Amino acid sequence: MARHSDVPVDPPPTEGAQPDTAAPGLDLLSSSAAPSGHFDELLSGPHALRPHWESFVRHAGALATSDLARAQARVKRQIHENGVTYNVYAAADGPTRPWALDPLPMIVPAAEWAVLAHGLRQRARLLEAMAADVYGAQCLLSEGLVPSALVLAHPGFLRACHGVSPTGGVFLHQVAFDLARGSDGQWWVLETRAQAPSGPGYALENRLIVSRLFPDAFREMRVHMLAHFFRAFQEALTGSAPLDGETPHVVLLTPGPYNETYFEHAYLARYLGFTLAEGGDLTVRNDRVYLKTLRGLERVHAILRRLDDDFCDPLELRPDSTLGVPGLVQAWRAGNVVVANAFGSGVLEAPALTGFLPAACERLLGEALAAPSVATWWCGEAAALADALPDAARLVIRSALHDPTVEPVFMAELDDTKRAQWVARVCATPERYVLQEHVTLSHAPTWHGERFASRPLMLRVFLVTDGRGDYHVMPGGLTRLAGIDGHVVSGQRGGSSKDTWVLSEAPITTFSLLRGRLGVDDIARSQRVVSSRSGENLFWLGRYAERSENSARLLRAVLSRLSDTDAGASIVLGPFMRTCLRQGLLPAAESEGVGGLHLLEQDLIQAMFDWRSNHSLAFNVEQTVRAAGTVRDRLSADNWRLVNQLFEAFTLPAPLAGGLAEALELIDQAIVLLVAIGGLETEHMTRDDGWRFLSIGRHIERLLYVTTTVAAAAAAEDPEQPALLEWLLDLADSTITYRARYMRQPEWLAVAHLLLFDRRNPRSAAFQLTKLTKHVDLLPGGDLNELTTEIRQAAASCRLRAAKEAAVVRPDALGALLRQIEELALRLSDELALRYFSHVYEPTRATTVR
Which of 6, 784, 821, 849 has the lowest tally of Cβ within 10 angstroms? Predict the structure, then answer.
């Protein structure tokens, strides 16, 4: 996860031997014993499974190699279809990295978990009390229990937060701890995540995937559910929010789609029912936070942030941040919004604090620290430095203030010269470093390729406040496995993750995240807001998806006819070429003749994959996927699977090896996927403002397409040529309708009527204008004045022309009408941007009116 801890291990992980035949689960699992000196999560002795693993094998069935290979394939397929990613070097043009998940769970017995959870709850209460003290009375500092230099010099200590009591009195709404089990089986706390701990969404996705692989074992072993924890997560934010009689509105503040854990941001927002928002979506007015929506400003009562402190407010924190909200700290300080976690909580992540927690726990809670931390010495204390350094070979050197540029160094891995250099560096600036005792990590079995392997692991456990001074512990967590190099990470250097099964001694009751019965007031007030950014991205998702489908249909119609020289040669240099050039599918016209047609075919196929061209099919598909990614929290899992398949189809290298046949096959695949995406949007999306703007985008793009293609045909030398009209019907996906209606070869009058004036044809211009009229009338904030009137008039004009098309539908008489409709569609797009979208990008301001 973000800012992870790399704990070097020795010796390197070992691989189990591959059995010759499909052996029973016991024999196969036993082949992945942990290396000597490491605690084995699987075995209690040679070929002796621990009791909970015996139960797993008994209920999961024979774990033969073929069974596990199929399970691993299902896991990979599910992750791919769901688009579960962890992007390390997130960039606009960077590749996504699929999330890595092992099919075998990490299993923790009930009695062991009870002890662990008790200690972590106490530690969470301690950190909450320390935050209140550090930003309040500072007793720990004044009494010398925690060095003042350690806290006040930490970049996570924010002076702007001193003296602030957050709304609801809670600093840490959520917290996470990274745990490791030593060689003696003891769990140790290695690190604290107190600003914006990442991982609960990945843990939930792991659970949904792995529990389906072993449903009998999951049920019979009484594995704790996770829904209780996420219900508590919801209530932690809504319960302390300053509502002022309003319905609670919670947003999840994300850095955006290029953040490495953006999948989790969208996933949690959708699962918890929060609004996914970027910094530009929010504004502060009169010390209150508002979301910019299509219907105006909507009050925000609580913010679950996934930004570190520095980036949250350019006015009071990091001035060059473009990710935050100007004035957010002041709004929080004034008590008008809950921010989880509270600003300034980053100081609690300092590794150097670990050595001072026992004394702080006695002082603030009056209790001994229950969950032990790995032995830690802050080098800023001369006595601690002198005590630890003589045995430096067994130590890990780390940054005292959680500086991400200082990598942990395991001294035992260095030769004498480098070890001496590090000792000298520490002695030169001792306040910058801590020394920690090295933990020899436990090992667990993992299915690696076609065999078992034994890999070291760490466990991240999540807690959330109950609002009454205590914390709920997620009965599970995110287990992270080392990669082949032995570093415990989940994404940055390889490695994998596991679903964490916490067993219960009592029967498990089913539970839903949804609360109890709703009342009339709940129903009346339930309306999902749509931010202006989401509305704009949905609008462009509609446009790019429709544009992609139109480009694919045009390419198919042209390429499928180029091989037929008799039909194609006579018309390709007319409307075919004009339409391709107008749509940007070709850079320039080619010469006549069969040779020219062959070159045209090659150019069209190559241009399909020209990512640099903003008109190519590949570019339009990429933009469709990009727009879908920015509103992922609003798309169903089925919709996202289709989008994912669409993008994958166009990551093939160009030119296609199979030439024309392969190109047409790919185009057919793209059209089917795009039609399916459109069908899900039409039939399954809630009819809110977001869906309306998506639909408007589709209708605008379809209107532009039909006017462009009909205009190109009308300008042909012989517009009534049947081959040309067949092509025109093909482009508009109206061939079957025409044949069923007229049962004769295409004629201009009937084709023009069908594509322009027939309101029953979902591809006609009249249909698009009718739909746009209805949508525009229902837009939030009233109609668009003169533009609305013009759209109605254009729709009425189509109805009038349909009644007397014989006189007015001549090819030479349509030019003015088609230009008018095209210009109207473009003006509508511009007007929507000015009215509903542009203020997302205006300079943000914070008011200080009292």
Answer: 849
